[in-house]
Design brief:
Layout: E1 5-9, H1 14-27, E2 35-39, H2 45-50, E3 55-59, H3 64-69, E4 73-76, H4 78-86, E5 91-94, E6 99-102, H5 108-113, H6 127-139, H7 149-152, H8 158-178, E7 186-189, E8 191-193, E9 205-207, H9 208-220, E10 224-225, H10 228-232, E11 240-246, H11 250-263, E12 267-271, H12 281-284, H13 296-304, E13 308-312, H14 325-343, E14 349-351, H15 359-367, E15 372-374, E16 393-394, H16 401-407, H17 412-419
Helix pairs in contact: 1-6, 9-11
The structure holds zinc ion.
Amino acid sequence: MVLNNVAWAGRLTGPKGEIAWRIIGEVAPQFPATVFTIVGGPVTERFRAAAGHNVHLQDFVSDVDAVYRASDLVIGAGRVAIEAMQLGRPVIAVGENRYIGPIDGTTIALAKATNFGDCDRLHPFDTAAMVRDLGRLASGAITLPVADYPRYLVDYRLDHVYPRVMAVYREALVDAALRPFAEIPVLTYHRVLTERPAGSKFNIYVTVDELEQQILSLKQRGFQFVTFRDIADGVRPKKPVILSFDDGYEDNHRNLLPLLKKHTARAVIYVLGDRTITDNHWDIAQGEPAAALMSDGQLLECQCSGLVEIGAHGMTHRKLTQLDAAVLADEVSASKTALESLIDDEVVSFAYPYGVYARREVAAVQSAGYLFGVGTVNGPVRMADDKMRVRRITMFPGTDRLQFRKKTSGWYLRYCRLKGKDF
Ligand SMILES: [Zn+2]
């Protein structure tokens, strides 16, 4: 490529000034046919005296874009590099702490990770590397893929940056809401029935009366019913409790929703993303009596009550650890998408089916964009320590008043840990 004009931009003081100084003194003299335009100030007598015939000291200019446009190559870091690339100019990145070199597919990752050389531990600036690279560019030994530059810079576009900034902000709000609590009781329920069912093998139900007594007990003790979504939305509860109901049974609509309304309590219901599944087929296979799941209409009624957070529980209620990577990703992210389009709202929490997960499953839930991954009897006692491994307390039928108070005491998980037992 022809190197008639090369521009460098930055302050002439501090570490940036040192780079300019060395370009003027050590690089420019080796390319006498190239004009080096140095944009930035203050232009002191020292710089003026050092500038050779092919160095133009421009001081601060109002239209730096025009300088970039008029240049065959731009040298700089941070904003200088990014703006020049946006204008489609070839760039050599050098920042306060590192010389990155010509920007192409092999250097862009390092460039972005270091803000084009500004943010890194100090690697002393080797002008010989820059001289070598300029020589290669001038001779055509290397060419720069400026056509790919817009693609490299997608991450810097406002429509990409804004959601990430908001996500970090929300994460910080959630952490602040959770931090004060050594233990937030998150209770796991499944079915809610008016009478004890015949032949239930897994005892995954409570009666309406039991649940009502428990809700009353929590209210009397000053608990505040919240959902994961509430916390994601910035609620800072004083004494939180989370009631969660797995699988999305039809009886939740019939029996739980009226209770929530009666006591203005709130709950999370974890439902399947595959809305064609109408019963608990995974438990029927194990000998559990059949139970209907909520229809879309019933689920929407729960959502519209404003008292229920709809969370995801996978597409089909399979053990995630037994799935290959592609199916796992689908179970986790397709259930989010499907439910979000059904309820026309965001789904922020995911309950691992059977409470079974390992590092890979946690990563899948995180990368699908959930704020909470909810397990059963695993995960840290303190929710703030890992929002992707939320530990819950399983509720069984026949829990008496005292047991219930113990389970929601605020020290139960630590107590169980001390005793070395599951709960
Ligand atoms: Zn389940």
